Amino acid sequence: MDPCGEVVGIREYVPRGEVTLPTAPGVPSSMTPLLFLSAVALAAPPELSVAYHGDFITHPGASARTAFGALEVQTGTWWHPKNQTVAYLRTGPAFRFTGPRNGTWGGFAHVGVLGALWAAPTYRVDAGDVRRGPGGDAWINGVAGLELGRHTPDAPIDGWFVRPQMGARFPTFHGMGLDLAVEIGVRFGGAS
Amino acid sequence: MRALALLFLVGCAGDGQIRDQFNVEIDGAVLPVSVRGNADSGKLVVFESGGPSGPGIAERAVDYVVFDESLSDEVAIVMYDRRGTGNALGDYRDDTLTMDRLVEDLRAISRVLDERYNPQTKILAGHSFGALSSQRYLMAHPDDFDGWAPIAPAWTVQDQQMQLDYRFDFLCRVADEQEGDAALWEDMRSWCAENADDPPTVDSKDLDTMYDFLNEIDDRLGAWPTMEPGGLVGALFGSHYNFIDTQMRPNRISDPVWADLKGMDALGELAEIDIPTRIITGRYDDVAPTELAVDGLEALSSEDAALVEIDDAGHYPFHIAPFRIAKTILELF
């Protein structure tokens, strides 16, 4: 508990005055969080975010994300010059706390798929015959990261954020590949 | 500041220069190939990296920066990742990792280079294990390259006893040459004298003494490359390459390839090489000693063959004498 009384935790997603914790008789206490999250998801308009997505910071891309309560769905792309252009779709839980002076912090864990929309020229050599073939690859990936930012109640946007993150790709030639990335973006709508 | 400049300049190329990257798919593997330099010259230097687990393209961004730049006005330099290393993709089984498989991978890359750049002259260079693999390539495809530059050639690493014999000669020669740190060198000279008539064998119980001495030589004289911050930053953030993937890969290629090479008489088979050759060796290379390079020179059939010794270098001569090595390779064109 923050001594300033400003930490609201998961309540950030709750439209104030509209949702209360279920107290119906017969509901096991272990179900309470699930019911709570479901209620939030139904009651709150989806949150939308758009961001610069930099794979290894400097390989530029863009991402868009929506959140249904604590569940996020995100799509994006980045351009690794002369190597490949990657698109992805992923989903997973996230949390965000609002601290003193509207500072926000949180974290997320996503799983999804990656695919190369474009890859460097690929030549297939078969029995001495050289042919241009489709390049690129597809992977399953998991991504986890932190979120730092600020809630902006008086601005047209709901807030801004920076999300440093580490992703793991499967399968690569020998197992796992890593992607360091950062997203820098703004958030619209949703419950605040 | 230099690191920042590199960050933005990597990927840019001057007039007549290319920074090309493509993939070659062969027998289930997808091998990234990086070509930099003057491709309009019609001259290509294809580089076989060490290892066999050495990641070719990643090394270019760190160890070979000056060497690369010193050649790039005159020729285009080709580096690639072997299957099982670097950013190579695709599917394979460990039992497909034979030297013949690696040779045919390079053959596929060479065909693509012919189609993409139509070079007039191609030189094959190889460092350490790369000298061994490039030799095997030239034996299988003798007409594909116009010259050969084995650098720090590890022609005996598949034969432990032969390797010991050359390292013993190397150790005693270096000890004889030294004047400073008298106690250490004197200890080495005494040990060499004691063992001169009965050099260590793979079954010797005192091999640790020999390896300790070799490590002392390596520490004092065989300068290893250092990672320059600029090169590392450029490789991490600005290259056309996933540097972290390269470092993440476990080495599954060395054991099957070494097993496949066991019993190979690389020195004897050098007689099959008859194209112009420049052997480059570091004076303090304890892995592939100058003594071995000298014997390699004598074993070649080529009438145009020479040995260049880099005075201050160990097994990694590129950062010590990049211009000397570049000049030696250019002699082959």
How many E strands of chain B? Answer: 9
Helix content of chain A: under 10%
Strand content of chain A is: over 45%
**Gap from first CA to last CA of chain B:** 37 Å
What's the SSE pattern of chain A? Answer: HEEEEEEEEEE
Which stretches of chain A are low in confidence, meaning pLDDT under 50 for 5 or more residues running?
1-42
Q: Which CATH top level class of the largest domain in chain B fits? A: Alpha Beta
> H/E order of the elements of chain B?
HEEEHHEEHEHEHHHHHHHEHEH
| Approximate helicity band of chain B | 40-55%
- Multimeric status of the protein: heterodimer
Average pLDDT of chain B: 86
Q: What is the overall number of helices of chain A?
A: 1
Biggest sheet descriptor of chain A: 8 strands, antiparallel, barrel
CATH topology of chain A: Porin
Major beta-sheet overview of chain B: 9 strands, mixed
Describe the structure.
- The complex is a heterodimer of chains A (192) and B (333).
- Chain A is mostly beta strands and 192 residues long.
- Chain A has one helix at residues 32-43, and strands at residues 47-55, 61-68, 71-80, 84-98, 103-119, 122-126, 129-133, 138-151, 159-172, 175-188.
- Chain A has an eight-stranded antiparallel barrel.
- Chain A starts with 31 loop residues before the first helix and ends with a strand.
- Chain B has helices at residues 2-9, 56-62, 65-72, 99-117, 129-140, 160-177, 182-195, 207-221, 229-238, 243-248, 254-261, 266-269, 290-299, 322-330, and strands spanning 18-26, 29-37, 43-48, 76-80, 89-90, 121-127, 147-151, 277-282, 305-310.
- In chain B, helix 3 runs parallel beside helix 14 and helix 4 crosses helix 5 (129-140).
- Chain B is built from 14 helices and nine strands.
- The longest helix of chain B is centred in the N-terminal third of the chain and has 19 residues, at 99-117.
- Chain B has two domains: 2-159 and 223-330, 3-Layer(aba) Sandwich (Rossmann fold), CATH 3.40.50; 161-221, no CATH class.
- Chain B has 333 residues and is an alpha/beta fold.
- Strand 6 (122-126) of chain A pairs parallel with strand 1 of chain B.
